[in-house]
Amino acid sequence: MMSRPSPSAVQQKFSKAALTALACGLCVFVPFATGLAALVAGPIGIRATRSEAVVGRRWAILGMALGLVNLGAWGFIVDMHLERAPIEAVAHQYIDDLAHHRLAAARQESLANRTDAVQVDADTINNHGTVNDIEVGDIHRHSGYDITTASIDGLIGFTNNAQTFTFQMVLVRFGGQWRVQSFIAYPH
């Protein structure tokens, strides 16, 4: 009768796939690639540890968990950046159209019920000189009840006037595009 060697007598080695999963999972500063690599190497490492001669199951699991964190965090960061760009573009374009008396274009960027308000917005901007700088600061997105809005705070600088104006704008996503719902500018 042959006896099986005890687990302590078996020479154990560490799973390279488990180590790879953990190393890739820890590299959270590299977007997406290392997270995906951790999710691929993790299951390979787990399968390899089925043998008594291979250890590292916990490291493989930890690597996969960190890989998921990597993908989730970078997905959130990219989503925030991709969402900010079109919001900023609408804010810049609307103020630029007001400053250059392109009221028809400003009306197209605005909700339909703001037609009269566009002239008031243009007067507010143009009574203080020529716009030379538009800085979009904070953007806060809000979603609920099938509607998404963005609140924007920023600054408008004028060449003819040393005074800077603060602006606040609310955009609504309408028909897949951002539209100006409200706009106000006042001395900073």
Describe this structure in words.
The protein has 188 residues and is α+β, with helices and mostly antiparallel strands. The protein folds into two domains: 65 residues; 105 residues, Nuclear Transport Factor 2, Chain: A (Roll), CATH 3.10.450.50. 47% of the residues lie in helices and 28% in strands. The protein contains five helices and six strands. The strands form two sheets. Strands 3-4-5-6 form a four-stranded antiparallel beta sheet. A hairpin with a 2-residue loop joins strand 5 and strand 6. Helix 1 runs parallel beside helix 3. It starts with 12 loop residues before the first strand and ends with a strand.
Task: Pick out its properties.
5 helices, two-stranded parallel ribbon, 2 domains, single chain, alpha+beta, 188 residues, four-stranded antiparallel beta sheet, Nuclear Transport Factor 2, Chain: A
